[in-house]
Amino acid sequence: MSSQENPEENLPAQHGTAHGAVSVADEKHPFADPGLPPHEHRVQDIDERAAKRSERTVALLFTVSMLATVGFIASYVTIDIDQSAYIWPIGHISALNFALGCTLGLALFCIGAGAVHWARTLMSDEELVDERHPIEAPPEVKTKVMADFAQGAKESALGRRKLIRTTMFGALALFPLSGVVLLRDLGPLPGTVLRHTGWRKGKLLVNMNTNEPLRASDVTVGSLTFAKPEGLEEHDHDFQTQIAKDALMIIRIQPDDIKDKRELEWSHEGIVAYSKICTHVGCPISLYEQQTHHALCPCHQSTFDLADGARVIFGPAGHALPQLRIGVNDEGYLEALGDFEEPVGPAFWERG
């Protein structure tokens, strides 16, 4: 005998007040209470076969979500970032972005659709009437809340519908892995890359405005010139990355005005070379006051004394600007005598 021949056996127990009850209006209560409409049972409440079909549908949605999450991770690992694909009618777009968007959207949609279908077809759909209560929660209310929670947990059939429970937990557990794989873009660790620049012994100092090597005679007292290492060109694919470490300020100061002994030794006839990158947050320093020999960062007003080892005299910068040791070659061109002896720019977590 099928479950549809005796549907009353499978109906859930009735709770709360009777449906459709209508109170009578009187002088004290002029508006009649229409009550709740008669409750209509769903086919899943009557036929266990229909409930099983709904259970399999929900499980299928959660399973598709898991597969979509695996597809997201696979796309992120296997598709090259420069690869494009033609998608009608959009045209040529990034294959990686399209794959990530589709798989991530499908994973989220299936989790949501599975939860909605579960709630609409398998969880209890009876409307319960509860009178308003004061804001405070007396002990009896807390007891009632816990009882209602236990009843809701029982009616959700989470313990009985093991297939739904297993696939739901699987989908929810697997989906966060989509974010975990994104941690790959935080690496690899910089290692010693931040400790070295493009400057080497014998590298000529090239004027960034004229793109010509600098002679000592080109730098006048009180002037400010920006330089880059020989061989670094603007059309290079990594130019912005390299210039963020290699950019120099070239200043000529009267040797008698230089207070720091090492600065004087590392200069050439008063020509000193300091990193242009501020040691606060890495802004390019571009302001120089020739009377005081102070260099000012325009971002947060960190001020450095270029006549005294570029020490910080004002502002949030944490340490002095690194100095590059320079000299001249046989042709009179300024050249580096090595790399910076300390990392340029702001401090970083593994600097010690």
UniProtKB/TrEMBL annotation:
Keyword Magnesium: no
Protein name per Swiss-Prot or TrEMBL: Cytochrome bc1 complex Rieske iron-sulfur subunit
Purpose of the protein: Iron-sulfur subunit of the cytochrome bc1 complex, an essential component of the respiratory electron transport chain required for ATP synthesis. The bc1 complex catalyzes the oxidation of menaquinol and the reduction of cytochrome c in the respiratory chain. The bc1 complex operates through a Q-cycle mechanism that couples electron transfer to generation of the proton gradient that drives ATP synthesis.
SUPFAM superfamilies: ISP domain
Keywords (A to Z) from UniProt: 2Fe-2S, Cell membrane, Disulfide bond, Electron transport, Iron, Iron-sulfur, Membrane, Metal-binding, Oxidoreductase, Respiratory chain, Transmembrane, Transmembrane helix, Transport
Chain ranges passing through the membrane: 58-79, 85-116, 163-183
Main subcellular location: membrane
Record InterPro entries: QcrA_N, Rieske_2Fe-2S, Rieske_2Fe-2S_sf, Rieske_Fe-S_prot
Molecular function via GO: 2 iron, 2 sulfur cluster binding; metal ion binding; monooxygenase activity; oxidoreductase activity, acting on paired donors, with incorporation or reduction of molecular oxygen
Disordered: annotated segments: 1-40
Start and end residues of each Rieske domain: 245-335
Organism of this sequence: Streptomyces phyllanthi
Membrane topology of this protein: Multi-pass membrane protein
GO CC, alphabetical: plasma membrane
Family, as annotated: Belongs to the Rieske iron-sulfur protein family.
Subunit comment: The cytochrome bc1 complex is composed of a cytochrome b (QcrB), the Rieske iron-sulfur protein (QcrA) and a diheme cytochrome c (QcrC) subunit.
Location(s), subcellular: Cell membrane
PANTHER family on file: CYTOCHROME B-C1 COMPLEX SUBUNIT RIESKE, MITOCHONDRIAL
